[in-house]
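haha ok so turns out i had the wrong file open the whole time. this is the CORRECT one, sorry everyone. sequence first:
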Amino acid sequence: MTAITNPTPEQAEALAALRTALGTDAVITDGALFAELVDPYEPESWGGQRSLCIVQPTSTEDVQAVMRIANQHDIPVWVGSQGRNNGYGGSGTIVPGSILINLRRMDKVLEINEDFGYVVVEPGVSFNQLYAEVQAQGKKVLIDTPDLGWGSLIGNAADHGYGYTKNGDRARSICGLEVVLPTGEVIRTGMWALPGSETAHLYPKGYGPDAEQIFLQSNYGIITKAGFWVMPTPETYFSGTIRVEEDEQLDAMVDALRPLMLDGTIPNIPSCFMGSSAMSYIGQRKDFWDGEGPIPEEVLTGVREQADIGYWMCRFALYGRETQVDESLAAVKAAMADLPGVSVMGEKLPGDKIDELELDQGASVQGGKPDMSMLSMINFAGDNGGHVGFSSVVPTTGKDVRAVINLVRKAAAEAGVDYSSTLMFGPRYAVHVFLAFLDRDNDEHTRHVYQVCRDTVQVAAEAGYGEYRAHTSTMDVVAAAYSWNDGALGAFNEKLKDALDPNSILMPGRSGIWGAKYRDQQPSTPWKQ
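then structure:
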């Protein structure tokens, strides 16, 4: 991303107003940050994203000032927290000439409450930072973290991101938001709207309509503070793996897993990785296969045998008193005992020693300890690698999991793209994440991977499987698939947008929601050409 080099008089006035309100150091028009706060994997032939400037506020009041100036000068705004949403567009803007608000400087951990199990943070607080602060204060809580710990809690939750503890459905662990609206007003949600509330982060609703969830995956406001529920540190933590030897044996394992989650035996968000994903840890694609088309199955089989792993490796966790963990583990083993090619393994650990132990990636994140080792996967397709995420939601049944695997695998094969996926399980739904690896040094291949993900949206939707989050370049396509009753949901979203953002200023196009200003003629973007 680069800055606009010749701003219009109106844009120049806005820049001057921003510098007066926030200080000159908070308004950035050149430098390395522009190269960082983009979709890092965007094809070079798209020509890059151009913004008016990057602003880095340090307070809610600063954010309010930015929104008032943007409205006054009719300049759109895009927002990123840490800017680490790689694979889904990063901090890349949709409308050229936008003000990009980067919230990294709003990085205060405001509260860690051990007695009730919650934290309150600003959007610049990363999982790594929160974990370090919990350790520094000696608090006996276990935070929830995704696979990479460098991102923002608030930013990840705002895009419906997942972790792997009891609070792994992070959007549902939110309790109390502070939000700057598109016109610059600030509100607090739920019980936090009550002055002096003693239950601001304890009771998740409040009185009247529950507004919190409308600020997630939307362009209705900018979250500047949030409360999150966290777990108490357990006496005992079991880091478990269910090994599935052959691909087709996954179906029965999923059907056996669902009752264990429904009755609470397995309390976290289990996740399954293809065993062949080990390739991305131990080398690059060219080290295993340098031919045309997807990597052949016999090569993948050889990698699994070399690494001594199954076709699928499903990690899960148990927490509680040792007797509780032992009882739950016995139930998991009993449920899997009669399934051919399925075995259960793992390690029982003291919950209060997780920080001191050397753990592998899965054991770390299920134990609430952030990890960064999965970054090594990024360059699998080439020295300058990347990936695009395509993420469908299906029922937690072997039949449906198999259907989405077959659907996406077929689309990938027809496009000549390697298939690699992760499955995240809730008791009633599973999320199938297709990691489409790309080589940024091969512009044609990169563009092709993006297009495969766009094309597959409608194929999955026709099978009844919608996407739970979307890359910036695919948001309109994903939103259009939610078309019941002539797109009634989209029309409802637009009504809310126009009421809250009459000037169509805040993140136009986010989640396929366009304000009235852009609705009839949306900006020309590279992926629409």
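The chain has 16 helices and 20 strands.
again sry for the mixup
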